[in-house]
């Protein structure tokens, strides 16, 4: 666990593995619910880091975190968000070739995984879903698209993501969903948040 000050009142905690981020984030939120860190205004997990904003004493908080025993991250036991997906993405054949399976098998494999939102970023509502093993990791496209259609279901490294709106992107597109991933008129606007379990349902 490594600590880096960010300005006068934020602390960036760097960890060695995404699972460690999930575990520490869960422990921070558990302790916050019991009154720890009353000055904190935001806790933002990422792939290998957690940003704590609104830290009253950077050295004191870093010292506390260093002494914590962090339990292994346990998947939440709440409801699963089901995402209907039509597996007909522009890069489906590319992913099938990388996985050495048929396009239909890509859909079967991808929809059979139990996902969890590891963190959010890139664009409002964009969630990085963990669950694919290293053996299914795929590279980003060598040439990113200037505009990816909203609702595109895509892969990069070991993550699955859903583009909430049209934007540039270099992930491999394997499908599409009509689910509203980001809705400013909804509370909360994001359909998916860190820790949420996700299941893709093949509607091809």
Provide the fold topology.
Elements: E1 2-6, E2 10-14, H1 18-33, E3 42-45, E4 49-53, H2 58-67, E5 80-85, H3 92-99, H4 103-111, E6 115-120, E7 127-130, E8 145-148, E9 152-156, E10 159-162, E11 167-169, E12 172-176, E13 197-202
Parallel strand pairs: 5-13
Antiparallel strand pairs: 1-2, 2-4, 3-4, 6-7, 6-13, 8-11, 9-10, 9-12
Report on the architecture of this protein:
It is built from 4 helices and 13 strands. The protein has 2 domains: 2-67, Gyrase A, domain 2, CATH 3.30.1360; 80-202, Cyclophilin, CATH 2.40.100.10. By secondary structure, it is α+β, with helices and mostly antiparallel strands. The strands form 4 sheets. The protein has a 4-stranded antiparallel beta sheet with strand order 1-2-4-3, with helices on one face. Helix content is 21%, strand content 30%. The mean pLDDT is 92. It has helices at residues 18-33, 58-67, 92-99, 103-111; strands at 2-6, 10-14, 42-45, 49-53, 80-85, 115-120, 127-130, 145-148, 152-156, 159-162, 167-169, 172-176, 197-202.
Quick tags:
alpha+beta, Gyrase A, domain 2, Cyclophilin, four-stranded antiparallel β-sheet, four-stranded mixed β-sheet, 13 strands
């Amino acid at each position: 666990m490594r600590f880096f000050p960010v300005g006068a009142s934020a602390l960036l905690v760097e960890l060695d593995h995404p699972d460690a981020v999930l575990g520490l984030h869960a422990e921070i939120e558990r302790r916050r619910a019991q009154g720890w860190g009353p000055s904190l205004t935001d806790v933002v997990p990422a792939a290998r880091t957690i940003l704590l904003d609104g830290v009253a004493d950077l050295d004191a908080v870093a010292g506390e975190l260093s002494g914590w025993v962090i339990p292994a991250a346990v998947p939440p036991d709440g409801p699963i968000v089901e995402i209907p997906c039509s597996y007909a993405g522009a890069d489906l054949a590319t992913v099938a070739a990388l996985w050495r399976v048929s396009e239909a098998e890509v859909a079967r494999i991808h929809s059979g995984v139990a996902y969890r939102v590891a963190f959010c970023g890139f664009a409002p509502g964009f969630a990085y879903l963990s669950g694919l093993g290293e053996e299914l990791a795929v590279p980003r496209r060598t040439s990113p698209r200037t505009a990816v259609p909203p609702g595109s279901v895509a892969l990069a490294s070991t993550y699955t993501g859903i583009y909430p709106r049209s934007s540039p992107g270099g992930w491999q597109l394997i499908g599409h969903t009509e689910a509203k991933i980001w809705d400013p008129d909804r509370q909360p606007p994001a359909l998916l948040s860190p820790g949420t379990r996700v299941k893709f349902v093949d509607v091809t």
